[in-house]
Write a structure and sequence with these properties.
mainly beta; Thrombin, subunit H; 2 helices; 33 strands; about 5% helix; globular
Length: about 400
């Protein structure tokens, strides 16, 4: 068979498989559908289609490390072990519904939140494992611990990561307004009743909730060793992890975005277009102009803090005094917090690109356009990069 014939045969198989898969994957509210793991997928193995090589699933292994919640960890540092250096598209697909958060990855499976469901895909091939419909949709990415996903929908819900079955619903808490943060056996979730809740990972029981209501629905929180940090309309507030009591309040006049924390210091973007560093006891350490309001968390690697979301450039500052290390143009506005490794900084853009720049000097390493994607968010693990767009596009990149 000629190369052209093989390509035509593969395209015909994919079209038939996509039709069969569409008929099998419909779910009712609060129900899950799961594939056997052996059926064809609507994901396109780009290497095999465009270059006539063997499909990626026969030559690739899944990432060996994980990215399990917003910002990669409960402190939202955005740090991964390694990312792609000279990537190619391994596979790409479109879920045909809005994706509401960055992808989550663990142990060979990619988890995605959408406006109506939570979805699990094989990370190497893009094959859909299961999809669970949720009446309230999903607010941001889920958080994963072991074999359980914690999802912010109309209530905080626990979902079996292997099957998609709903395990329990935290009816004792309010409706989440942001994705959960997961740390040391507790789930911290801001809710639309303007309170922050701490819930048990085992059954969703309320461990504590803040005694006073804030004046507006809350954004995502960051978790440090002894405190939980939360942006509110009047500033940044710290609550003790053990009982939820308020420790301090800072930034009285500016509305901060989602914070991140490292080595006793908290970093957050403010409504007056500044990046601000706060000490462990709530004192402002420094403030630097960044050019736009940031809603998502700064990313932190060793002694540097790096921001891009809402900006047309990536900026790197020293954590101790805020001095600028470098600024690198993205050409287009960044649509996500950055992911970091020891060698590179990765960002998604509003016009559907993924950009990597060097960690040391900010020099662009590579740029990859994802056709039809909008407002790209990224997660990095084990030499792979997973990118999602608001339009439902999901793409896997690897060397």
């Amino acid at each position: 068979m000629t190369l052209q014939s093989r390509r035509q045969a593969l395209q015909s198989m994919l079209i038939v498989s996509a039709g069969l898969l569409a008929g099998c994957l419909g779910t009712n509210d609060n129900s899950a559908s799961r594939g056997s793991g052996n059926e064809p997928t609507s994901a396109k193995p780009v290497e095999s289609q465009e270059q006539g090589t063997a499909p990626p699933s026969t030559t690739r292994t899944p990432p060996g490390s994980n990215w399990t919640q917003l910002g990669g960890d409960p402190a939202h540092t955005g740090v991964a072990d390694s990312g792609p250096q000279n990537p190619r598209v391994v596979w790409t697909l479109n879920l045909h519904e809005k994706i509401t958060g960055e992808p989550i990855y663990a142990d060979g499976t990619l988890y995605l939140s959408t406006s109506s469901s939570v979805v699990a895909l094989d990370a190497v091939t893009g094959t859909r494992h299961w999809s669970t419909s949720l009446e309230g949709g999903v607010h941001g990415p889920p958080a994963l611990s072991g074999s359980t996903l914690y999802v912010s929908s109309r209530r905080l819900m626990a979902v079996d990561a292997n099957s998609g079955d709903i395990l329990w619903t935290a009816n004792g808490a309010g409706e989440p307004s942001a994705p959960p943060a997961l740390s040391q056996g507790s789930i911290y979730v801001p809710c639309r009743d303007k309170r922050l809740y701490s819930l048990s990972v085992g059954d969703g029981a309320v461990q504590w909730k803040t005694t006073s209501r804030h004046s507006k629905s809350l954004a995502a929180c960051a978790v440090g060793p002894s405190k939980v940090y939360l942006g509110i309309p009047t500033g940044l507030v710290a609550h003790h992890r053990d009982n939820g009591a308020r420790a301090w309040n800072a930034l009285d006049s500016s509305i901060p975005g989602v914070p991140s924390v490292e080595s006793g210091r908290v970093f957050v973007g403010s409504s007056n277009k500044h990046l601000v560093a706060i000490s462990a006891n709530g004192e402002k350490l420094w403030s630097k102009t960044v050019g736009n309001r940031m809603n998502l968390s700064p990313s932190i690697f060793e002694d540097s803090v790096i921001v891009a979301e809402g900006l047309s450039k990536i900026q790197k500052f020293r954590t101790n005094n805020g001095s600028s290390e470098w600024s690198s143009s993205l050409k287009k506005t960044a649509s996500s917090a950055v992911a970091l490794t020891a060698n590179a900084v990765y960002a998604g853009t509003a016009n559907g690109s993924v950009v990597a720049v060097g960690q040391e000097r900010g020099i662009e390493l590579w740029r990859h356009a994802i056709p039809e994607a909008q407002h790209v968010r990224v997660a990095v693990a084990g030499g792979w990069l997973f990118a999602t767009g608001d339009d439902g596009t999901v793409t896997a990149l690897a060397d």
